[in-house]
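Might you be able to review the protein record set out just below?
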Amino acid sequence: TGYAVTYNRKHGRSGHLFQNRYKSILCQEDAYLLELVRYIHLNPIRAGIVKELEGLDRYPFTGHSALLGKIPREWQDTGFILGFYGKRIGAARRRYRAFILEGVSQGRRPELTGGGLIRSAGGWEEVKRMREAREFQKSDERILGDGDFVEEVLSGCDEKMERRYRLKSKGYDLEKLVMRVSEVMEMEPSQVLRAGKERGRVQARSLLCYWAVRELGLCMSALAGKFGLSLAGISQSVKRGERIAAKTGYNLLD
């Protein structure tokens, strides 16, 4: 806390140390993903931290060096991005680097960094043109993609929120979820909550975790405390419960 206060005073910032340092956005794969990867990896050059691409190739604080195999990191998934450039690792890395090189002279990209409408439209000039022509496009700061993609994502979110509201209006909470799980799994409610590695009990808890997190929107940390599991354990239970629901056809609502 003391360090954060001192740092904020020195740099004119506020909030906790990592506030506004990191964020996640949903990215439309087809048109935007590779452009976004290139833009992010070129940040050290734009900031003057490294002067040219050769320096960036071995710069340890971006994923670029790992994609090129210069600084391997076991935890970084490089295969997904390199897969866009070819099946053979060597050729894929050469094509990827050539693509990065093409972006060195592009400078800042407002369509990748601005607000939701700026990104969806493709920059301020296109936003101005749309306003003059009275054209409208769906946008959201949390989503990087064209208007149709943004609308599709938000529509799906609206449907999910509407379903959660409907469930809660019917009185669904964790206790009622336990009753529903015990009903479909044909066991006593106390068996659903009891710890143990018996197959039926594990499946029941997994289904409960899946419905609690995905359907009701309960936080995993609350479930972790309830069941005495780690967050990773709850996450695995949610995935397992999703598979069980898909295989058996069990639904929270009849």
Summary: The beta strands are 26-27, 143-144.
